[in-house]
Amino acid sequence: MSLSFAPRDTPALPLYIVPQAELATWLTDQPDPVARWIKATAYDAAPGALALLPDGSGALAGAVIGADGPKERVRGRFGLARAASQLPQGVWKIASPLAPDEAEEAALGWLLASYRFARYSRDPDAPCALLQAPQGVDATRVEAIAAGEVLTRDLINTPASDMGPQELEAATRALAEDFGAAFNAVTGEDLLRHNFPMIHAVGRASPRAPRLLEVTWGEAGPLLTLVGKGVCFDTGGLDLKPASAMGLMKKDMGGAATVLGLARMIMALALPLRLRVLIPAVENSVAGEAFRPGDILTSRKGLTVEVNNTDAEGRLVLADALALACEDAPDLVVSMATLTGAARVAVGPDLAPFYTDDDGDAQTLLHAGRRVGDPLWRMPFWDPYEEMIEPGIADLDNAPSGGMAGSITAALFLRRFAQGTRYIHFDIYGHQPKPAPARPKGGVGQGARAILDALPGLLGI
Question: What kind and span of H or E run contains 156?
């Protein structure tokens, strides 16, 4: 797959973006062969519809794609990316004027349209047409963002047979080495000696040892700590999932994959900050050593947790990592996790729900998400529900009964371990259920590009 733009001095064919209502006006400015061809083929510039354009000799002169309003919304998010796989191979350029935000989204979508997860396939990648970066677009920045997204997708798409805690550690270590970052891992029984008891409890039943992964990078600037849920496969533990719910559980490390993709973007762009990445990497398995319903675990923070469902394990491993994150007084902690089905019921697979107590941070994120086409939705840290996560027998309940407000109660649980720290939590899905422009079916990053765009406002960099 190509994650690079064609050089701007390369000869390129023009691609015109024409809103359907403006087709007649556009045709008046075109050469006669183009105008006659469009009329002869009854092309109507319907949103997303593509037409190749001939010159007077019958050779290819360019192409036109229909739009339904603002040019960047060619039939939805990343709509222009539809053209990348439909156009003949070669180099193309966008010949219609675009606003800066529109041009950046169009350029990124084009690169991401070339993504294929081909690790296990004998079929060659389907080649995509190349694009020159539009004028005014920072090609290096867009290429770095695309590379981070591809890392996230590849990690999520890799099955658990090849992406267990050890393999996730290897991928994290490789990323750190690529950018000269420091790497550390605490593994197996050492988790108890270093006071990560809940990470150990969740992962101890698997022959693939649990671990806490850490990357640190940067020498100056505000400290940003990213915490990603790295449950490489989730059987549900002794509260075993049905087969229908287990089929996508290779993606339960989607939070870890997303923070690693975001970390790659930050380091590649050399942002003026200090970065710390923490990933509790485990497999939630069934064995004689598995933690049990009714067990009470003592966390790194000292809070006790009654386990009322072993399938609510993600918040347990995140809790120990969040407690560690807050010990260094970071300027901002962001956790990302494929945490609850309740979030998907609430907002579906497209939107990334997030939680924050800071209205200003929420607006900064929402604005960034709209600007870069990475849609977010704010959810409430609803304080009246705090009593739902207090079982009485312990400080906290990992799975309140009643089945209500599941995403909110999970977020409130995590907030207990980040108390006193500026904290934002994302409850993402990490999977594209059906193909869409620039987003083939499978693993997908959510929220990372919005966070990247928001960092100047969030951290004052």
Answer: helix 139-157
